Amino acid sequence: MSDPIVLIPARLASTRLPDKPLADIGGEPMIVHVMRRAEEAGIGPVAVATDAPAIAEAVTRAGGRAVMTRPDHQSGSDRIHEALESLDPEGRHDIVVNVQGDLPTIDPRVITASTRPLVDPAVDIATLAAVITREEERTEPSVVKAIGSEIAPGHLRALYFTRATAPYGEGPLLHHIGLYTYRRAALARFVALPPSPLERRERLEQLRAVEAGMRIDIVVVDDVPLGVDTPHDLERARAMLAPRR
């Protein structure tokens, strides 16, 4: 790897938590907390890709960099691809880390860990997972399971992702974490592909890459970062990020 960049897609259209990137957590918008965690990873420049002037203003007010994108993107991957081409048309950055904009408590070390599999030139995309410890998550469709073949301790080659309880039988299940690190050429190829049959069936974008024969490697980390989707999640994030007394 020669020059990674971290891009954070963010938009205001959330039904369960309206305007959630701007939700206040300890005096700063949530998107600013995510930006700070990405900056603390120290792997490269960080920018927020958005179609909302209010998000861009919040980011720049906090000293960050925002890139305006089209409002009609279907996914965060499409949005960061447009932002990448706008920020770096000469192609200097060859690794692109896509950090979701609703992970204000993410450990910067986890962001860094996602880049390690791309040391192998055969890997197109890297992502993260954690061992499921709560029994109810094993059968919960909202918890996406990552299935892979172990290459080394804590490092797997992805075989499939599913909302079902899989694989069958005794043994741990892995909770997929939706943070992706792309080789730049892989990102360009991915966003040019049409949605695949399994992607549409499972409603999992990463299956488009799997069906296209792209190699995804998985790094197993200690736990799943809190994704803020509801008012309850927001209160948890506020408690987690509150100053210690």
TrEMBL record:
One GO cellular component, as annotated: cytosol
Pathway as given in its UniProt record: Nucleotide-sugar biosynthesis; CMP-3-deoxy-D-manno-octulosonate biosynthesis; CMP-3-deoxy-D-manno-octulosonate from 3-deoxy-D-manno-octulosonate and CTP: step 1/1
Subcellular localization: Cytoplasm
Pfam families the record matches: CTP_transf_3
Catalytic activity: 3-deoxy-alpha-D-manno-oct-2-ulosonate + CTP = CMP-3-deoxy-beta-D-manno-octulosonate + diphosphate
Keywords carried by this UniProt record: Cytoplasm, Lipopolysaccharide biosynthesis, Nucleotidyltransferase, Transferase
Gene Ontology biological process terms, A to Z: CMP-keto-3-deoxy-D-manno-octulosonic acid biosynthetic process; lipopolysaccharide biosynthetic process
Residue ranges crossing the lipid bilayer per the database entry: none
GO molecular function: 3-deoxy-manno-octulosonate cytidylyltransferase activity
EC id: 2.7.7.38
Keyword Phosphoprotein included in the entry's annotation: no
InterPro entries linked: Cytidylyl_trans (IPR003329), KdsB (IPR004528), Nucleotide-diphossugar_trans (IPR029044)
Keyword presence, Hydrolase: no
CDD domains named among the record's database cross-references: CMP-KDO-Synthetase (cd02517)
Family statement drawn from the similarity comment of this UniProt entry: Belongs to the KdsB family.
Function, in words: Activates KDO (a required 8-carbon sugar) for incorporation into bacterial lipopolysaccharide in Gram-negative bacteria.
PANTHER family the record matches: 3-DEOXY-MANNO-OCTULOSONATE CYTIDYLYLTRANSFERASE, 3-DEOXY-MANNO-OCTULOSONATE CYTIDYLYLTRANSFERASE, MITOCHONDRIAL
Name this protein carries in UniProt: 3-deoxy-manno-octulosonate cytidylyltransferase
UniProt gene name: kdsB
